Amino acid sequence: MTRHNLNSMTCRKAGEAMPSPEGISSGRFWYEDLLPGGSDGDLAAIRADLPPGVVTHWHSHPQGQLIYVLSGVGLVQANDGPIRKVRAGDAIWFGPGERHRHGAVENSMFSYISVQAWQDGRNVDWLDEETENRS
User: Fold this and answer.
1) Of 14, 79, 81, 114, which sees the most CB atoms within 10 A?
2) Torsions phi, psi of 89, nearest 5?
3) What's the CA gap between 88 and 111, in Å, rounded?
4) At 94, phi and psi to the nearest 5?
5) pLDDT at 1 over 70
6) CB atoms inside a 10 Å sphere around CB 34
7) How many of the other CB atoms lie within 10 Å of CB of 41?
8) Regarding beta strands 59-60 and 43-50, do their DSSP bridges make them parallel or antiparallel, or are they unpaired?
9) CA gap 45, 66 in Å, rounded
């Protein structure tokens, strides 16, 4: 099996952002594919920039997800647990298969780097739409 991650140093230049796919969040956001991966065991990494009030739909990652907040203020929630406010410099880990969501507060952008591994041909499982009110 061919691995999609590169075997030597690569410098990816900024400016290759694209709009998020429809149906994965309460509104569109921008993201940059930093490390695409694609084969089992590969890491995938993105930089995401969410406008105020945009939150992802519930989802999970087969090998877990690390989020490192770059700027702004965001909200994170796992399962039906408490909604936590996060800021620049915070690191959040969601375990393998853990149902969760994350997004921007109503009055701030939310930018982060997300890292997750591929397993069985995927690195994310989208579950259901975000429909609850957030505080």
Assistant:
1) 114
2) 95, -15
3) 8
4) -110, 130
5) no
6) 17
7) 12
8) unpaired
9) 9
Distance in angstroms (rounded) separating the CA atoms of residues 84 and 69: 13
The pLDDT value given to residue 13: 75
Structure tokens at 4: 């999609």
- pTM passes above 0.70: yes
**What is the token pair recorded at 80?**
């039906």
Asked if residue 51 lies in contact with residue 29, where contact means CB atoms within 8 angstroms, the answer is yes
- What average pLDDT score do residues 48-55 get? 98
Residue 2 has pLDDT above 90, yes or no: no
Q: What does the block give as tokens for 59?
A: 């989802």
For the residues 90-110, what does the mean pLDDT come to? 98
Q: Which of 106, 101, 102 is nearest to 53 (CA)?
A: 106
- What CA dihedral angle connects 60, 90, 88 and 94, to 10 degrees? 0
Q: What is the DSSP letter of 52?
A: T
Architecture of domain 30-121: Sandwich (2.60)
| Residue that is written with structure tokens 């907040």 in the block | 69
